[in-house]
Amino acid sequence: MSLFLEVIPVSEAVEVVRQIARPPRSEEVALEDALYRVLAEDILADIDIPGFDRSTVDGYAVAAADTTGASEGIPAMLGCLGRVGMGSADACSISPGLCRYIPTGGALPRGADAVVMIEHAEEIGGDLLVRRPVAPGENVVFQGEDFRAGQVVLERGRVLSPRDIGVAAAVGAGRVSVVTPPVIGIISTGNELVQTDRVPGPGEVRDANSYLVGAFVAERGCLPIHFGIVRDERDALDEAITVAFSRCDAVLVSGGSSKDERDNTAAVIADLGKVLVHGIAIAPGKPTIIGTVQGKPAIGLPGHPASAYVVLVAIVDHLLAAMQKTAVARRTLHARLTENIPSARGREDYIRVRVGEGEAMPVFGKSGLLNTLVQSEGLVRIPASSEGLESGEDVEVILW
Amino acid sequence: MSLFLEVIPVSEAVEVVRQIARPPRSEEVALEDALYRVLAEDILADIDIPGFDRSTVDGYAVAAADTTGASEGIPAMLGCLGRVGMGSADACSISPGLCRYIPTGGALPRGADAVVMIEHAEEIGGDLLVRRPVAPGENVVFQGEDFRAGQVVLERGRVLSPRDIGVAAAVGAGRVSVVTPPVIGIISTGNELVQTDRVPGPGEVRDANSYLVGAFVAERGCLPIHFGIVRDERDALDEAITVAFSRCDAVLVSGGSSKDERDNTAAVIADLGKVLVHGIAIAPGKPTIIGTVQGKPAIGLPGHPASAYVVLVAIVDHLLAAMQKTAVARRTLHARLTENIPSARGREDYIRVRVGEGEAMPVFGKSGLLNTLVQSEGLVRIPASSEGLESGEDVEVILW
């Protein structure tokens, strides 16, 4: 067995995790509980929206033709028939030369095809002076203009935003079919690890990864379950992974993913299932494992939190999205790089950067430092085909 | 009483909502439940991180001076003393001319000041051939280099990201003090409104705002409580607002915010407390009310969902942030505008745009359309001092 990892390109690793993702289950929830959930079915408009021709302003419903040529100097004069009631089932109408006051959202009377804004008209006795002409359709939203009955309003796979929730309410989707959150088991392995509430002794460090990975998974709409810290012993890891797979749709193990003699993750995954990838041409994050156990994804992450997080963003994000049949939700922006960054050809480098005023500033310091995670706003990816980026180049920043 | 609103600039309205925000309460939660919560107190490192000089690679702990001049042709030769144990309390050391194998994360032995990567060395019998020199400190993170004991790691007011959660775990913050989510009462008013699960009759529309506002408030870390749909009747609205304030830290009423005779929100807020602002120089969203009841914020939003949402983003966001002593979390990007957009001087216009490939494309169509909310990715703000933006201009997009 070689001491070194045989690495594959990031794009291939992404392809592998997409392939091992199994289709999600779905469930129905009340719309008010559906924020950020992934739609499992299209939402259609059940009726025309709006259901009637509707005024968008406070004003007067008119036949537009009656206002032709109206001006400050020579206003048009119309007879005023009173108000349009809100939410009223009483059909009302106007005849040529007449108008009705209509509040915002009111149903346009039959015979009207436009609304004169209150600012451009003056009521005097029972008459209305109109000081500006309106075009047909002005200040009106017509029946079905927003959404037609039967039209797809929100597509399957969409992560529901607050605006989507509002629009779903408008089309009657009081309950929606959403993806059941995949359950993700989380294990940290390492003899040096102690729990957060303990003060580490000599040579010990706290287990940051359980929290880091759990929060990442939760942010991506999944349900993390923690299986704690496991020592670097093959039997212990075997048992922990087996138990985790009995309850979870996928398991993420951090630590023990390299080829040191105390690194057991790949061997245990191979025992229980299959190792598909061991080593990715990515920095940081090379010692990453992709495999399956019971046909479910089993991922080995580097032990160092900063490296693990880059792998979460670059690789695991695609797995979790595929498990929910949604797209990777990635916010990016363009910025001007402030420094040269050399890179090895054949390896994708992910450089942590701060972002401000259109500039991307590499966060220097050793890649193993945790503080780079909180002092950066995102990552700049240097493709495997590149030998680096130059100061002043326009780069895409993947925001954390 | 004038038929028209006396408007104030957006910047003044923002100042007013900031002033009426009262300081938040705080509570302690387990770190795993703190994702996206607002920190109420700084988190400090309780100890040096790391707590010892730590290897960042798998390799050999050496005295850097022993590798001076090492090369492929003339490697340095060191005696090999065995392994550094992980998480071990056993102090170990090396003397000049000697080395120890050290896994990633291992504690550097006394006498060593650098680590040679495994790739650049070869073990032969009990000896190690080193083929590249290392500098002092190479592949090592020194004690306290990441965080010093007592140093502020995460500042009060920060919204905790997954990365923050991981870093907090590393510094021992297993429980954290976070802002108690403000409780926000939500009321929709309008005779035309029916609940989402009903099919609207003639002249009726479904109440989208309760859902839209509720989801926005939840996204901003607050707890929405719904008080349903109220008819356009002063007594009914008075009662609903009074009940809402008995349970909530602030109340948002949508609808009834203009000056039509059926618009009661301003009058009811004036009865129960104080109206500070009625009308903002913003489009859409002019008929907006800012007031207080029992010293707590009372906001009147326009009835149309698309207008209400712009006011939520432009004004209410600042209120909810101030109520939690945090900054408005706003993601923006720069893009090239694809069309001219005229605007009235003296008014801030918010134009919905789609974003793609560095371009911001205005979503045309009547501002009263709901579909603009789901077909746009954000807003471009046209300042009150501007008469419009030109095609090709670089604009800032506030992402939804």
Provide keyphrases for this structure.
homodimer; alpha/beta; Molybdenum Cofactor Biosythetic Enzyme, Chain A; Molybdopterin biosynthesis moeA protein, domain 3; 4 domains; 6-stranded mixed β-sheet; 7 helices; elongated
3D architecture notes:
2 copies of one chain form a homodimer. By secondary structure, chain A is α/β, with parallel strands linked by helices. Chain A has 4 domains: 10-25 and 180-323, MoaB/Mog-like domain (Molybdenum Cofactor Biosythetic Enzyme, Chain A), CATH 3.40.980.10; 30-47 and 153-179, Molybdopterin biosynthesis moea protein, domain 2, CATH 3.90.105; 54-141, Molybdopterin biosynthesis moeA protein, domain 3, CATH 2.170.190; 332-399, Beta Barrel (Beta-clip). In chain A, 19% of the residues lie in helices and 31% in strands. Chain A contains 7 helices and 28 strands. Chain A has a 6-stranded mixed beta sheet, with no helix packed on it. In chain A, β24 and β25 (359-362) form a beta hairpin. In chain A, α1 (10-20) packs across α6 (305-323), α3 packs parallel to α6 and α4 (234-247) crosses α5 (265-272). The longest helix of chain A is centred in the C-terminal third of the chain and has 19 residues, at 305-323. The two termini of chain A are 37 Å apart. The relative contact order of chain A is 0.14. Chains A and B meet through α2, β14, β15, α3 and α7 of A and α2, β14, β15, α3 and α7 of B.
